[in-house]
Amino acid sequence: MTAVEERTARPHRSLFATILSAHARRALPSRCAGHALSTAALWLTLATVGAPGISGCIGVSQKKMTPGIVGGRATDLRVCRAGTRPAEDGNLDDFEDDNNQVTLEGGRDGYWWTKKDEKGSTVEPDPFAPSEGGADGSEMSLRGFGKTSAAPDAWGAGFGVNLVSNQGAFYDASRYVGISFKAKVGAGSTTTVRFKIGDVNTHQDAHVCRACWNHFGKDITLTNQWKEYKVLFTEARQEPYWGDPRPAAVTPSKLVSIDWSIGTGQSFDIWVDDIRFLECQ
Q: What is the CATH number of the domain that holds 121?
């Protein structure tokens, strides 16, 4: 928190200034309480109250931020000049333990889930758990299959995981630079999937977004053979034309979830394995 600079009001004020002060204080955020306001400051307060994005206090210095956005600065993201590698504590899940919780490593303890619209989309298995057959001859992986509705207002289906189990809590992934995973599709499946990273600015649980769920991510085309895919934080983007707010970048220090999403009117059979956080070489 930046330093607080208090301005002392004059000890004797006119009745007008007193009424003005009371009105202004009701409009100020609660964190401004206790800061005396000069008449000039009160005029400035009333001029800005109700303006979109204004949340500062008169006489309180603050770090400049885009209104309604937490972090979200592209300049905060790390760029790996020599490439990436799996982080030492980056194993998110390889599913060999045959349960629906992530690998308990790096402070992560979330559980896998499925999602679908209420217009007829389906996703299986139920209960959602690892399936036999993994990448590179391993025994287990995570499989999600079903069909998505093409009805009006349908949005599709998918599966993912919250990185920590406490609802509303954030996971600090700022020491990493992205995520890798292996994936393939089964027979008859769409090959198009969107990998999403939910963060403080896009996930509803963070209570920041006004139009939520447009997570940062990347559209990926899968094949029927296991292949590794990488999504770096620097290349993750929101979908165009919707979502509020729309930061310049994902905020790795305040992540909520990751997921694989399938659009409307599709049959899907998606397999994923060996999900890891990445670090710089």
A: 2.60.120.430
